[in-house]
Amino acid sequence: MKDSAAERGVKEDIIKSNFTENWGRFLLKMPSLLLGLFLFAVGVVANLYSDLGTAPWTVLHVGLSKITALSLGQTSQLVGFIVLVIGWGLGIPPGLSTFANMYLIGYFIDLIMIWKILPMPGDLMGRYAMLLFSVAMIGVASLFYMRVQLGAGPRDGLMVGLVSKLDRPVSTIRTAIEVTVLVIGFLLGGPVGIGTLVNALLMGPAVQASFRLGGFNAKSEQINLYKLANCLSGREELP
Fold first, then answer.
1. Contact, 97 vs 33, CB < 8 A?
2. What is the C-alpha to C-alpha distance for residues 149 and 98, in angstroms, rounded to an integer?
């Protein structure tokens, strides 16, 4: 049965209202997203500058950068793109933040290093302080870019896709990914040390603490590009 003219008019009014409100919400999310990705890059560079060993993915990125003509940021972008494609192939559609994460973190890493935004610590105490600063910074950064709910990072998409396909616990899949990445990165000459262990032990609590202080529920829906398109056209409500 076809909708009456009045019903069609009401639906069109709802779509127009959603269109305006959703675009307003979307644009208000952009500063938080960009700030989060920039702070994440700050955390990565600080982790590297501590010279005590880095998180597994950075170990891989540094290792790859040593055997290619790519910068650390470009290597991060390349790996992020490959992981994004694999995650998408496993049935996890990316969101806008997924692409932003893949490209902008690498871009900001190179910018921070070229502009020498962060100092190089001069003694062991300073290096440990830089390591702890990096963990805290990545925790805060995760809050800023995740709370916009426009998609998780490429590596999270890969993890979720493998969990779905292999029917294994998240902890098992996450550990397998991290160990695999770490071993490959180490074999390529990436920096492994006490900092790698510190990242493994403290990164999760740092992110969780940031989410709690920021009042963000980690289980909140992260919308993919398909749903975002519907939201920005006014057909669905943007969270």
1. yes
2. 10
pLDDT of 13 strictly over 90: no
**CA distance linking residue 190 with residue 183, whole number of Å:** 9
Contacts of 173 (CB under 8 A, 6+ apart): 159, 162, 163, 166
Q: What is the phi/psi pair of residue 181, to 5°?
A: -60, -40
Of 139, 121, 142, the residue nearest 130 (C-alpha):
121
Cβ distance 48 to 191 under 8 Å?
Answer: yes
Domain segments of the chain as ranges: 29-232
Q: Tell me what the pLDDT averaged over the chain comes to.
A: 91
pTM attached to this predicted model: 0.92
190 φ/ψ angles, rounded to the nearest 5 degrees = -70, 155
Q: Is the pLDDT of residue 133 over 70?
A: yes
